TrEMBL record, chain A:
Signal peptide (UniProt feature, chain positions): 1-24
Entry-linked InterPro entries: DUF1800
Species name: Elongatibacter sediminis
Alphabetical list of Pfam families matching this protein: DUF1800
Keywords: Signal
Entry superkingdom: Bacteria
Name of the protein in its database record: DUF1800 family protein
């Protein structure tokens, strides 16, 4: 746990101070957008012990949307795919919905290839491309400078570009939002570090390293190994400087990560055995394991003159000279290096051997993952983040059983859970963090990549997330992770700031057109096209009631069960007129309140019903704006702050 | 001294917009059976009586308070000073030739009047040193708020006021929440930081925030409202649509839905911001502006500076907030490496003569009051996850320990040192023949449970509260010869 100096205001300030123009950057080679084939149902693989497959009747479009919201920030799948998935057996659909491929073309269609061409598996690549003046860079011209790593007149790198790049990647079609949600979890919650302690370059490397490990199919043990050996963690925790004196054998260093390796990466508190053993043997020996982990530097990295920006996350565990001419003694600074492969430490009651820290971490990972506390706690930690704030003992037992059966295969575990009765249980409650809520809303509201790239960064989700206490790579609990859904639900100012955002700047969600210059320098105009997305009634007409129901399900995903008559009255009125229901009914009594009973009888009921039956010309920009007003209303209701597991 | 607010200046006169909003709040409040005399706010800005209030300041990360307090060179046990010099000399920025030089450069000499013990308080905590000299600081030695060395569990232990708690479940009550429940159903725990800590939470699952006011920014607590001048604007339309829906549905769902319905929390947020936010904004605009010293205060932690400003404003509107307990925090105490730089910055922010608490308490002392100065009604209690190890590690820092010092500050605190400040056992061989001050891993031996002293503090707030809020306190750990029952003036 460390200090947090990169504040929201600092980032905002930095963003507003940017004056320089981005330097040209080489673009990335295209071509990793592959569409996974439709596979036969792998029911056997996805049915884990302890979990029961959701019934076909409960597997409907609302269920599909729930999965997408929990696991993929809502995803960017079109209506046809959502319907198709709901008509498939869940065990078949989930394979298409959730994978760790670089591109999942159904979950996040590349949309003409502008964004997906670059692969979206590397924030480094994305940042380089989006800040460049390449002719096919889709980012609006005026936004590109905000994505740079190093401003022209600065001597050290800035976090602004990275923070904006991550936010943009999360709402860019072609990027796999499930892959990135997992990488976000690993780097900002599970094995979390803070940008202040790691630095901009290292934390970006760390994120990219974890994405790469996920794409390559690493299981939980492999992912934790990649995290534990990562230079970003070694730098942030300080064990990069730990060493064992080659002559005296004395350990010089701290035990910070030695402790947190167990507690954070593997959820081992040391409470299931003699605390003294855990404190004085496992932790202290792990501190000795974490020796010989100095980071290399590459001079002038990013063009920065600050040597602190030159570190790279991949540690070379040999004795060597780095590119900056520094002698690095990662072999001889390691514990009992002369013993080579026979250099062993007792940790978690096992002999952990290896010539370097890297070798020992590789050996220790499976031991830690198999520890009873890890087996008991890791699956709960995962599910608390992705889907369920409160897990009772019965659920916990089921999840633990499934975790054993999944054999550390994260993808298999999460897929099986996502189509289980546990996930789709009406009693499951998930509070959204400001990250999740804003990305879900923004992804549902953004209809194509042109909209995403044409609009300025401040019309995206990132600034709103920051205003609501959610700054990526700056977790509020530092190594204990970022804002959780429960944190957000308990924080009155998150609610207040969300209210302020929707009320004071409704254009963020309601804007219908924007002029911009693209990579070719040509002036372009983007225009909202709800008419291409909202399905009409069977007779081809868009009616207020049906559009409202569709919007509700798109943003709230509860099958309409919480769409009460008071909310309907307001939504219908906003859709039909652009005004609130009170103003429509009696302009002289703007603050009049109409209860559910009021609206269920007499003239008011008739008014609501007549509003529902009105037809809308969705090609009319005014109507598109009114849809945006309705979206602002719907997404500020409590149901946009928390979700439950089941619905009609 | 009994000072009254000056009449409202033209600049802060009630605007039409504010007048309308006041009328709206009055209407809403009367509709909900509120008893607050709303009319008085715009007529009379006199400060309401500040109740006795505990301010829990959580030092997140595990503060090494042994850095704050060190023995004087003339300590009765020279072996002790010799060993602590060796154990901790590497922590300091400068290389000192001997302990005397270190002490002279780093510490201000202090003396406990009751025992005559001489020790030092770090120079970066000069205000604290002055307060100690004036008898307003109690240092409880060998204290423990948890038995483990894990941040999350220990912070939960501290917030819960249950050092022996072993369950890591944050959906539970805190001692601030229990205290305000004891004080009455309308009394609140006020969180001044940017997120609501477990300290504040109440005992009823699903309604743990019912007696919590989140005051992250006291000058910006109201919900964005529509424009009176432009009722047709998008902002006005959305504000009305949302307010109308929340006003109606918050009432309806109370009876429609069970107490543990997950969405109740958001209705409560709305109601609190609507009711408290509007009233606080109104009252503060009528009385004292934010003190100049607080406006210009520059701290390394902008977050703590804001909390200090919030505390000042809280003291102007205790009746609106119905304050019973207060929560503040300061992070950045996990000093595994480069400890001196980090801890000195933290100590300066908190305790320097120009630091947050010195500036804030001075400003509060200038506030008008009727009978009792609000400054005299505050007692600050400093909690932390745990203490740190006695011996410096290899990166000029200290690793996690357990025992620590507990510090209370306030005009009604009986100042002094409670317990053995520098235990002789730390310089003597233990049962295994190891001398703690020479042994990596050794820490301050916790003897006095923090719930003991917190029970005393709760009794100071309201007699009888201690045994209810801290039911295990009477049987919990207490250093032999120490009486924490005398920590406060008339507890």
């Amino acid at each position: 746990m460390r200090n947090q100096a990169v504040t929201r205001s600092a980032v905002l300030l930095a963003a507003t101070l940017i004056a320089s123009v981005a330097q040209a950057q080489p673009r990335i080679d295209p071509g990793r957008d592959r569409v996974p084939p439709t596979l036969p149902s792998p029911a056997g693989e996805l049915q884990l012990e302890g979990l029961t497959l959701v019934t076909r009747t409960a597997w409907n479009t609302a269920a599909v949307r729930r999965v997408l919201q929990s696991f993929a920030f809502g995803g960017m799948a079109d209506e046809a795919h959502i319907l198709a998935w709901s008509n498939m057996p869940p065990e078949q659909a989930i394979v298409q919905m959730l994978d760790f491929e670089a591109v999942n073309a159904r979950l996040s269609p590349p949309d003409g290839g502008t964004a997906a061409e670059i692969g979206c598996t590397s924030l480094t690549d994305l940042q380089n491309f989006w800040s460049s003046d390449a002719p096919d860079n889709p980012v609006r011209e005026s936004d590109r400078p905000y994505h740079v790593m190093l401003y022209d007149n600065d001597s050290f790198v800035t976090p602004v570009g990275l923070i904006l790049t991550w936010g943009r990647a999360m709402h860019t079609r072609g990027c796999n939002p499930f892959l990135h949600r997992m990488a976000f979890y690993l780097t900002n919650y599970h094995a979390s570090i803070h940008i202040q302690n790691a630095g901009v370059a290292l934390i970006r490397d760390y994120y990219d390293d974890m994405v790469s490990a996920l794409v390559s199919g690493a299981d939980f043990v492999g992912l934790m190994y990649h995290a534990a050996r990562n230079g970003a963690l070694a730098f942030a925790y300080g064990h990069a400087l730990n060493y064992v004196h080659p002559q005296t054998g004395a350990f010089v260093g701290n035990d910070d990560f030695a402790r947190e390796y167990f507690q954070l990466l593997f959820s081992i508190q040391g409470t299931s055995e003699d605390p003294d053993y855990h404190e004085n043997v496992s932790i202290e020996n792990n501190a000795r394991l974490l020796t010989g982990m100095m980071l290399d530097q590459v001079p002038d990295r990013f063009g920065s003159t600050n040597p602190g920006d030159w570190f790279v996350s991949g540690i070379d565990f040999t004795d060597h000279q780095d590119a900056a001419g520094r002698r690095i003694y990662n072999r001889t600074a390691h514990y009992e290096f002369r013993m080579g492969d026979e250099s062993c430490l007792e940790i978690l009651h096992q002999r952990v051997c290896g010539a370097t820290a890297d070798a020992k971490l590789l050996a220790l990972g499976p031991v830690a993952a198999a520890h009873p506390e890890s087996m008991a706690n890791t699956p709960l930690k995962l599910i608390r983040f992705f889907a369920d704030a409160v897990i009772d003992e019965t659920e916990a037992a089921a999840l633990r059983t499934a975790w054993v059966d999944a054999e550390w295969d994260l993808l298999r575990f999460l897929r099986a859970y996502a189509i289980s009765t546990l996930f789709h249980d009406p009693g499951r409650v998930q509070y959204w963090s400001a990250f999740e809520r804003n990305l879900i809303v923004h992804n549902a509201n953004t209809l194509d990549n042109e909209e995403s790239f044409a609009r300025a960064f401040y019309a995206g989700p990132t600034i709103r997330m920051i205003e609501q206490g959610a700054l990526v790579f700056a977790p509020i609990r530092d190594v204990f992770g970022g804002q959780t859904g429960t944190d957000a639900a308990n924080d009155r100012f998150v609610f207040k700031n969300a209210w302020t955002a929707n009320v004071n700047t409704p254009g963020v969600l309601a804007q219908v057109q924007e002029e911009y210059r693209d990579g070719s320098g040509e002036a372009e105009r983007w225009q909202k096209r709800w008419d291409e997305v909202v399905p009409p009634d069977p007779d081809g007409v868009h009616r207020v009631g049906s559009v409202a129901d569709w919007l509700w399900n798109r943003f709230i995903a509860d099958g309409g069960q919480n769409f009460d008559v008071v909310a309907k009255a307001q939504t219908y009125s906003l859709l039909a007129t652009g005004f609130d229901f009170g103003a429509l009914v009696d302009p002289e009594r703007l603050d009049a309140r109409y209860t559910s009973d009021d609206l269920s009888d007499g003239e008011l009921r008739a008014t609501v019903e007549s509003l529902a039956g009105l037809s809308l010309d969705l090609s009319d920009l005014r109507v598109q704006y009114q849809i945006g007003m309705a979206v602002n209303f719907i997404t500020m209701l409590p149901y946009a702050f928390a979700a439950e597991g089941g619905s009609p | 001294m009994n000072r009254q607010c000056q009449p409202a200046s033209p600049q802060v006169d009630v605007s039409r917009r504010r007048f309308l909003r006041t009328a709206l709040y009055a209407g809403l409040a009367s509709g909900m059976g509120a008893t607050v005399p709303l009319r008085a706010w715009s007529q009379d800005c006199a400060i309401a009586e500040m109740p006795r209030t505990l301010v829990n300041v959580m030092l997140q990360g595990g503060a090494d308070l042994r850095f704050l307090f060190m023995p004087a060179p003339g300590h009765p046990d020279p072996v002790y000073t010799g060993l602590i010099w060796q154990a901790r000399r590497v922590l300091y920025d400068s290389e000192y030739p001997d302990y005397e030089t270190l002490f002279e450069n780093e510490y201000l000499p202090a003396q406990d009047n009751r025992t005559g013990l001489q020790f030092g308080i770090h120079r970066d905590a000069e205000w604290l040193w002055r307060q100690f000299g004036e008898g307003r600081v109690a240092v409880v030695c060998n204290a423990y708020c948890s038995r483990n060395r894990r941040h999350d569990q220990s912070i939960l232990n501290a917030d819960a006021g249950e050092p022996e708690l072993e369950v890591l479940n944050f959906d539970r009550n805190g001692w601030g929440g229990r205290l305000v429940e004891y004080l009455g159903p309308h009394v609140n725990s006020v969180e001044l930081g940017d997120s609501v800590s477990t300290f504040n939470k109440g005992s009823v699952p699903g309604a743990r925030l019912d007696q919590v006011v989140h005051a992250e920014d006291m000058r910006d607590m109201a919900l964005a409202a529509g424009s009176v001048e432009n009722p047709a604007s998008a902002r006005s339309v959305l504000a009305r649509a949302l307010s109308s829906w929340y006003d109606v549905r918050s009432q309806e769902t109370r009876s429609e839905q069970p107490a543990d319905w997950p969405w109740h929390a958001f209705y409560r947020h709305y109601e609190s911001l609507r009711d408290f936010g509007g009233r606080v904004e109104e009252r503060l605009s009528q009385c004292q502006p934010l003190a100049e010293s607080l406006q210009s205060m520059q701290l390394a932690s902008s977050g703590f500076a804001q909390q200090c400003r919030n505390l000042y404003d809280l003291c102007q509107v205790p009746d609106v907030l119905q304050v019973g307990a207060v929560s503040m925090n300061y992070g950045g105490w996990d000093t595994h490496d480069g400890e001196a730089g980090e801890i000195r910055r933290n100590l300066s922010d908190l305790f320097a003569s120009s630091g947050g608490l010195a500036t804030t308490t001075a400003a509060i002392e200038e506030l008008p009051y009727r009978d009792v100065s609000p400054a005299s009604q505050l007692v600050f209690y400093f909690a932390s996850d745990f203490g740190r190890q006695l011996v410096a590690n290899g990166t000029a820092g200290t690793d996690h320990g357990r025992g620590t010092y507990s510090v209370l500050i306030g005009q009604q605190v009986r100042g002094g040192v409670y317990g053995e400040m520098f235990p002789q056992r730390e310089a003597a061989p233990d049962a295994d023949g190891r001398i703690p001050l020479q042994t990596p891993g050794a820490d301050i031996e916790g003897q006095t449970s923090t719930d003991r002293l917190l029970a005393t503090a709760a009794d100071w707030v309201s007699p009888g509260a201690g045994a209810v809020v801290f039911p295990a306190a009477s049987g919990s750990g207490l250093e032999p010869g120490v009486d924490v029952g005398t920590l406060l003036a008339d507890a």
